[in-house]
Amino acid sequence: MALVVQKYGGSSVANAERVKRVAERVVQAKKNGHDVVVVVSAMGDTTDDLLDQAEQITADPPGRELDMLLTAGERISMALLAIAISVHGYQARSFTGSQAGVITTSSHGKARIIDVTPGRLRSALDEGSIVIVAGFQGVSQDTKDITTLGRGGSDTTAVAVAAALQADVCEIYTDVDGVFTADPRIVPNARRLDTVTYEEMLELAACGAKVLMLRCVEYARRYGIPVHVRSSYSQLPGTTVTGSMEDLTVEQAIISGVAHDRSEGKITVYGVPDRPGEAAQLFRVLADAEINIDMIVQNVSGAASKLADISFTLPKADGPTALAALEKVKNTVGFDHVEFDQHIGKVSLVGAGMRSHPGVSARFFGALADAGVNLELISTSEIRISVVCRDTDLDLAVRAVHDAFELGSDVEAVVYGGTGR
Amino acid sequence: MALVVQKYGGSSVANAERVKRVAERVVQAKKNGHDVVVVVSAMGDTTDDLLDQAEQITADPPGRELDMLLTAGERISMALLAIAISVHGYQARSFTGSQAGVITTSSHGKARIIDVTPGRLRSALDEGSIVIVAGFQGVSQDTKDITTLGRGGSDTTAVAVAAALQADVCEIYTDVDGVFTADPRIVPNARRLDTVTYEEMLELAACGAKVLMLRCVEYARRYGIPVHVRSSYSQLPGTTVTGSMEDLTVEQAIISGVAHDRSEGKITVYGVPDRPGEAAQLFRVLADAEINIDMIVQNVSGAASKLADISFTLPKADGPTALAALEKVKNTVGFDHVEFDQHIGKVSLVGAGMRSHPGVSARFFGALADAGVNLELISTSEIRISVVCRDTDLDLAVRAVHDAFELGSDVEAVVYGGTGR
Fold first, then answer.
1. Residues in chain B closer than 8 A to A94 (CB atoms)
2. Which residue from A19, A66, A76 is facing B57, i.e. has the nearest CB?
3. Half-sphere exposure of B395 toward its Cβ, with a 13 Å CA cutoff?
4. pLDDT in tens, B351-360
5. Is A94 on the interface with B (CB under 8 A)?
6. What CATH code is assigned to A255-404?
7. Are strands B130-134 and B35-40 parallel, antiparallel or unpaired?
8. What pLDDT, on the 0 to 100 scale, is given for residue A420?
9. Which of A51, A76, A91, A131 best probes binding to B when mutated, by most B CB atoms within 10 angstroms?
10. Residue ranges of the ACT domain (chains A, B) (predicted)?
11. What pTM did the predictor assign?
């Protein structure tokens, strides 16, 4: 008998019919002899509907009250799931984030889990109940106020609860069949991966693969929880995220996949005096504005002028804030002007075997050159190469790299709808 | 500076516009220098919508999970109200029943408040915040599960919170202008009462006046909290429920009003052996089935036969359960047969001055006789006379009694829509 944590996203519980189907799957796991803990997101569009209601009142609601509002979403879905499970003759008990002991920071809308104290969950499991936990929410350690975790929060809840209960596996049910070598909407013959390491999954998530959020993978790696990503619409085997690079065998594939990201923009600061500390001053002001910078490149325009152009990428939504922050230090730093380019795309090749195989970069850049893709920025890690190109070249670039490393399968992947939170 | 508790029902917060209007009223009380605690129901049809969702899954959901589901309703309305108050530059903090310290029995769907421990509310008030509390909900003392209080629960929450905080007044904002001498939909010239005693209000509520629920009035009387019933759509003065019969002056009106009730049915058990204990056995089995009996009448058919017919009234919805319970003891008790009559109405005259004015009964029965209303059951208390008639005669009976005691005013009452919970 194992302890299994299952997480279902918003599209998996979007209406009564789907809730009933999830209930059947949960009951099946219980019938198979497992202790089952289920983490659920809010149903379908509930969160957006609640946000709309708040926006009808003001564009700038207080964070504490917005979190109170949004957490009604999981409350509804988890209670309905418990009711649907009861129809099968099994007892299910639902718990809010607070009741489940999900202790967080007090940063409303983007709280981080500090600890999970699962006393009530453990008691309910010991009584033989199926336990249901509201994803995405917790209670702040300092103020005892209700908090939400931000995007992808329900996955993180699932992994954190699995860690606290020392579960054997955390199954993430979603609307895709697992982790693929590329997005099947761009690369029709993308192949599902049976396994992927935490490190590779971290790189894929950081580079735009939406199947699992970064924070959730970080949590799973820290506590060594195997994460099993599966479709809630099929019985296909999915992808297991597990182990570390040290466990890799020589037979392991060199490359796990190609990720892409359309959500970033590029800011270029022209004519920055090429003196020590000038770039530091720019990035200090951006950090103070809580902007996450991704890739950075500096070009010295000419030796005589002693002026540099500095480009960096950042989430598109942060563009206006970043521009305003930079404008404030324009005179102090003494740069010429700033441009914000919203039409870039990023393609990344990820693979744990990359570091011991020197030919990877050459093949990567060769494929892009053959496809006629112009590269604007390049960055690498031990197990990843990322480049920025025009957004109009992005699909072409993903397919070229995917083909060059022969990552495809003979079977076309099935593509479903949107993703939950 | 006073401490004011205000309660707003579901129709008062049915949409964003109405939530904003309630926010203005709340902020006005704060600007007037008062500490303000607001108790809210779920918005408009939210509770019914949530019940519908549960019914799409099963007709018989577990009580714990149904309560978890329904309590999402007030969570939404209270957060939106807090957001709307923030727009005016005042800080509002919303609290669930559990956070507000509303401790209840564990009887899901009809829990009773045991105690209110308002530590967090007091702290928030001390910080200068406007406090918002979810009506209708609490947390069970034994199991720490979320509970709901049943119909009229939000009014009870408001009075209980007012008692715990030793508030100066509890204002119940609703869709009528106050307590009337009769339902203005039946008696167009019904008069609004400026004041009514707890005892009279208890009788009116028990006899079908829907403006305040029985439990709420009981609570207010026990803790001596003045309850001010007012319209949330107007600035009219409303009705204050206060004091006790002992405070009555001789100038007080003899009669406060006429209540009516269409929600009851009548069961008649024919041919019950007229021996000691037979009736007791019938009412024992009904009590075991948790059925609340209202009025009871026994007629002995004839001295020779030694058989009696026993009639009693009960909530219509409990009819089928009562019939099934009676059928089980048919042979033991030895009665002939049972009939269930769903077409009755009850009219009640309530007035604290009644007991010292002996002519009241005569005038009451005279008015009904003159109107040609046939009476089927009669029951009285010190300050009330109730009769049961055909439901088709009910409006006629209410008007006849209202006229006979000259309760009307020269002004027609304004009638609004439905009532909240």
1. 65, 68
2. A19
3. 6
4. 988 877 778 8
5. yes
6. 3.30.2130.10
7. parallel
8. 35
9. A76
10. 267-343, 349-421
11. 0.85
